[in-house]
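Quick one, tokens below. Sequence please?
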């Protein structure tokens, strides 16, 4: 089972130029129907089915899969394609309205990645459109969204740093006044103007590469206690590192991330990405060798146990209530017996990483 999962994770990051190794092709071809069924179940919470479907087709492997694997991958890919088309059309209307008023906006995460980083816009699932107002122009953004037919969502509380809107078509927009991570940074130092692939001729901003990496890492870190690791977000990071490999400044990323735990997580994620066959910048690879690797098994395990609140007492109570049928929690992936034994090793590695990451800081300082 482990070789199949590792091969599928590598496939998510493989380019046509790199191709698949003969051993990886043999693992995919030799997997039984039960192994495929199990792999699909384990990967379901990680939102990677559309990209996996695309990659399997690109390498002419999709038709070799048993129906138990083909059908959910195909169905999810179609659903995401249709949903993303609606989100892209909505984004185009918003951006053109902004442009007509002499305004612009910064795009975050999903909508930007689907347009400009993933091999096809249908391969990156999105739940909403994330927008950040240009400094000092938040009220103008909010007014424009209201004019475009959006209203504050009653499903989401109004937050200090932003408002979630929804239109009649069920499209959500997270409109941020600012990003707390970068409040001390001058606006011109954290953003750059970009041109979208699917919405041309309108000015739009994205985070500059170092800020984008820092934002992705801190976003994962903030959600890890409740969700564990989501492979889709790790793929996001890998594609950003790939696209901007020659522009990244580790000192700048370290400063923007701030805390030692976030910096250590970044290095561990880099090791996981590199271990899947994705080249990373040499300086980052050298720094990442100072911390314990984050394994794919650990990432999958954390995604199964953290949503329950394990290993805390409340987590055990939730799991027991679920197993007894007292309170079903179908939205949470069930942990495996081995997960409940191996989690102390995960915690040990997590605690060891920050002090070890200081070695990476020393190496970077000495290299200057």
């Amino acid at each position: 089972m482990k070789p199949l999962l590792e091969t599928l994770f590598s496939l998510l990051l493989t380019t046509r130029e790199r191709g698949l190794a003969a051993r990886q092709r043999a693992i995919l071809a030799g997997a039984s129907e039960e192994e495929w069924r199990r792999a699909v179940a384990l990967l379901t919470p990680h939102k990677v089915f559309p990209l996996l479907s695309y990659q399997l087709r690109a390498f002419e492997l999709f038709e070799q899969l048993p129906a138990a694997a083909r059908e959910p991958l195909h169905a999810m890919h179609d659903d995401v394609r249709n949903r993303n088309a609606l989100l892209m059309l909505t984004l185009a209307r918003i951006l053109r309205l902004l442009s007509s008023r002499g305004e612009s906006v910064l795009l975050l995460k999903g909508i930007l990645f689907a347009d400009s980083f993933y091999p096809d816009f249908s391969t990156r699932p999105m739940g909403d459109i994330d927008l950040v107002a240009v400094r000092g122009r938040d009220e103008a953004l909010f007014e424009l969204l209201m004019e475009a037919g959006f209203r504050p969502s009653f499903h989401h509380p109004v937050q200090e740093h932003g408002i979630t809107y929804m239109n009649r078509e069920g499209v959500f927009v997270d409109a941020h006044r600012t990003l707390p991570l970068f409040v001390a940074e001058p606006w011109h130092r954290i953003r750059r103007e970009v041109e979208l692939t699917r919405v041309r001729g309108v000015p739009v901003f994205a985070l500059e590469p170092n800020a984008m990496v820092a934002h992705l890492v801190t976003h994962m870190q903030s959600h890890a206690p409740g969700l564990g690791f989501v492979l889709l977000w790790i793929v996001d990071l890998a594609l950003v590192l790939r696209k901007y490999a020659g522009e990244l400044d580790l000192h700048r990323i370290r400063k923007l991330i701030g805390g030692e735990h976030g910096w250590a997580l970044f290095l561990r994620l880099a090791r996981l990405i590199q271990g899947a066959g994705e080249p990373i910048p040499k300086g980052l690879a050298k720094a990442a060798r100072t911390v314990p690797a984050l394994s794919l098994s650990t990432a999958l395990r954390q995604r199964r146990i953290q949503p329950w609140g394990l290993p805390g007492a409340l987590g055990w109570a939730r799991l027991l209530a679920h197993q007894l049928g007292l309170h079903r929690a179908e939205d949470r992936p069930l942990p495996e017996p081995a997960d409940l034994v191996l989690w102390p090793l995960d915690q040990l590695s997590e605690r060891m990483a920050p002090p070890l990451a200081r070695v990476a800081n020393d190496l970077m300082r000495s290299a200057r």
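The beta strands are 105-108, 129-133, 151-152, 162-166, 172-176, 191-194, 204-207. The mean pLDDT is 92.
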